[in-house]
Design goal:
There is one protein chain. The chain has 472 residues and is an alpha/beta fold. Helices cover 45% and strands 15% of the residues. It has 17 helices and 16 strands. The strands form four sheets. The protein has an eight-stranded mixed β-sheet, with helices on both faces. The protein has a four-stranded antiparallel β-sheet with strand order 12-13-16-15, with no helix packed on it. A two-stranded antiparallel ribbon has the order 1-2.
C-alpha cells in the first residue's frame, strides 16, 4: 500500500486497541517524517486521512491529538458453544461491534450499495402510496415476480411468474421448504461444510442431517451413494454455485449426477443460488434448475435465492421457484408465518430497479471490486501463512475456507484473533461431524485491501507462534 496509508493504518490499529487513548498527543509532522524516513507531505496525508475518519484532531499552536470522541475497540467474544444459532447471533453482534478487521461476515459492503438509484425508484412510487402501503399478494407483488422471472431467464432458467414465490429473505424460503418436505425425525442430505442457517433450521425442526463431504469439484459421489444405500432422505440441500463457506463451484458432471441420483432415489434437490450472481469467472455457471430443465428433471429441483448478497440485505427480498404441486404445499405454510412477504413498497421498488437495469449495472460495478479483494486475500494467505495451512479458491461469493492442523483447542484461535481485533468464523459451526483438521471461514466482502492484508498477517502470526511452541 502507499506509505501514507501504511502510516495511517498503523495509527488506526493502535487507537482501536486502546494503545493510544483519547487525548494522546501525536508526533509533529516534521518529527514523524524524520523518524519514518519519509517526506512531510506523506505524513501530512496520513494525518489528513485519520482526521477525515474522526480519529485525530489538530489544535492550532498545541499539536495533533487522538480525538476525545474515539472509543477503544470493544472486545466481543464468541459463545463457548459452537451451535449454529448461537454463532449466527455472534456474527450479528460482531457486525455492530468495533472490530478492527472483520473477516467473519459473508455479506456485501454497505459502502457499495446503490442507494441513490434505488431511492429514485422509491420516489417514483409516491403516486401509488395507497397501494404500496397496504397488504400485498400472498405470492409476492406481480411486478416483482415478472422481474425475477426475466432475471432467471437471462440465466437459462424457464420460470413462469406464477411459479415464483417471494419470501422474506432466503432464510424464510429455506424454512418453508424444510417444513413442507420433511417431518420431525426424518433424514435430509447436506454438504459438509454447509450454510449455518440450514443447520439452525434442522435443529429447530428436529430433522436429522446426513453429511456429504466435498472435494474440489463438488460433493463426493461415493459418499452420497453409500448414504443412499442405507437411508431414505427427504431432500438434499446443495449450494452448487459459489458454495458457502468454501466459495467453490461444482463442476457440471457432479451436478448432472446429483440430478440423476435424485430421480433414481426419489428425493428433492433444494438448490440455494443466493450467491450465483457474484461470479468472478468469465463464464459463470448456470443454475442447477437450468440443467434439470434441459434433462427433463425440473420436478426434482426447488430453486432458492435472495437479493441480500447481490443487492442489499435490508430489502429482505428472497424467492423460490418450484413446480405447481410443491407450491401448493409451500403457500399454506407461508401464510401461517407471513401473509404478504416483504413490504409491497420494497417489492415494487425492487421490481422497478431490476426492470430499469439497476441490478445489472450494480453488479457490473461491484463484482470487480469483490474480485480484487478476493485476490488480495489469496495473495496474503500465500505470503503469510506457514506450511500446513490450506485454503479454497473462491470462484464467486464472499467466503474462503481455511484448514490447518488442530493446533488450537475449540475456540482458542478465534478468541486470540478477536483480542488482536480480527474476527473470523469458527469452521466447526458449519460442520455436522468435526474431523482432525481445524477450519475457519474468512470473508472478504466488506474489508479493504489493507484490512485483509493486516488481518491475515495477524492470524498467521498466531498460527506460527503455536507451530513454534509445538515444535519446541
Amino acid at each position: 500500500m502507499a506509505l501514507y496509508r501504511h502510516i495511517a493504518e498503523e495509527f488506526r490499529t493502535r487507537i482501536a486497541k486502546g494503545e493510544l487513548p483519547p487525548g494522546t498527543r501525536l508526533p509533529t509532522v516534521r518529527a514523524l517524517a524524520r523518524e519514518v524516513g519519509t517526506t512531510r507531505l506523506t505524513v501530512h496525508n496520513a494525518y489528513r486521512e485519520l482526521q477525515t475518519d474522526g480519529l485525530i484532531e489538530s489544535v492550532v499552536g498545541r499539536g495533533t491529538f487522538v480525538s476525545a470522541q474515539v472509543q477503544p475497540m470493544a472486545q466481543p467474544s464468541f459463545s463457548e458453544r459452537l451451535e449454529p444459532d448461537l454463532v449466527l447471533s455472534d456474527l450479528h453482534r460482531l457486525q455492530q461491534a468495533k472490530v478492527l478487521h472483520n473477516l467473519a461476515l459473508a455479506t456485501a459492503d454497505p459502502a457499495l450499495f446503490p442507494y441513490q438509484a434505488f431511492w429514485a425508484c422509491l420516489e417514483g412510487l409516491k403516486p401509488l402510496a395507497r397501494e404500496v402501503f397496504g397488504y400485498g399478494s400472498v405470492m409476492g407483488e406481480p411486478e416483482l415476480r415478472v422481474s425475477l422471472s426475466e432475471l432467471l431467464e437471462q440465466r437459462e432458467v424457464r420460470a413462469d411468474p406464477e411459479e415464483v414465490l417471494v419470501t422474506v429473505g432466503g432464510l424464510q424460503g429455506l424454512a418453508l421448504v424444510c417444513r413442507a418436505l420433511a417431518e420431525p425425525g426424518e433424514e435430509v442430505l447436506l454438504e459438509e461444510p454447509t450454510y449455518l442457517g440450514l443447520l439452525g433450521i434442522l435443529k429447530q425442526f428436529r430433522l436429522k442431517p446426513l453429511p456429504v463431504q466435498l472435494d474440489a469439484e463438488g460433493p463426493r459421489l461415493e459418499v452420497l451413494e453409500a448414504l443412499l444405500k442405507r437411508h431414505r432422505p427427504r431432500f438434499y440441500y446443495t449450494i452448487p454455485s459459489y458454495h458457502n463457506p468454501t466459495g467453490l463451484r461444482f463442476r457440471e458432471e457432479r451436478r448432472r449426477r446429483l440430478l440423476e441420483l435424485a430421480q433414481a432415489h426419489g428425493f428433492t434437490l433444494v438448490e440455494d443460488d443466493t450467491l450465483g450472481l457474484l461470479s468472478y469467472e468469465k463464464l459463470p455457471p448456470t443454475p442447477l434448475l437450468a440443467l434439470a430443465q434441459k434433462m427433463g428433471l425440473e420436478a426434482q429441483v426447488v430453486h432458492l435465492a435472495s437479493l441480500s448478497k447481490a443487492l442489499m440485505p435490508g430489502l429482505r427480498i428472497g424467492y423460490l421457484v418450484a413446480s405447481p404441486a410443491l407450491l401448493e404445499r409451500f403457500i399454506p405454510l407461508h401464510n401461517v408465518s407471513d401473509i404478504t412477504g416483504p413490504p409491497p413498497l420494497l417489492q415494487r421498488a425492487t421490481a422497478q430497479f431490476i426492470r430499469q437495469g439497476g441490478l445489472k449495472q450494480h453488479l457490473r460495478q461491484v463484482v470487480p471490486i469483490y474480485q480484487k479483494r478476493r485476490d488480495v486475500l489469496l495473495r496474503a494467505l500465500k505470503r503469510h501463512m506457514p506450511e500446513g495451512v490450506t485454503w479454497s479458491y473462491p470462484e464467486g461469493g464472499f467466503s474462503c475456507w481455511v484448514g490447518l492442523p488442530r493446533l488450537f483447542s475449540n475456540l482458542e484461535l478465534h478468541h486470540q484473533a478477536l483480542a488482536r481485533g480480527v474476527a473470523i468464523t469458527p469452521g466447526e459451526a458449519f460442520l455436522v461431524q468435526a474431523d482432525q483438521t481445524m477450519h475457519f471461514r474468512l470473508c472478504f466482502g466488506t474489508e479493504t485491501a489493507e484490512g485483509l492484508e493486516e488481518g491475515v498477517k495477524e492470524l498467521a502470526e498466531l498460527i506460527r507462534a503455536r507451530v513454534s511452541n509445538e515444535q519446541a
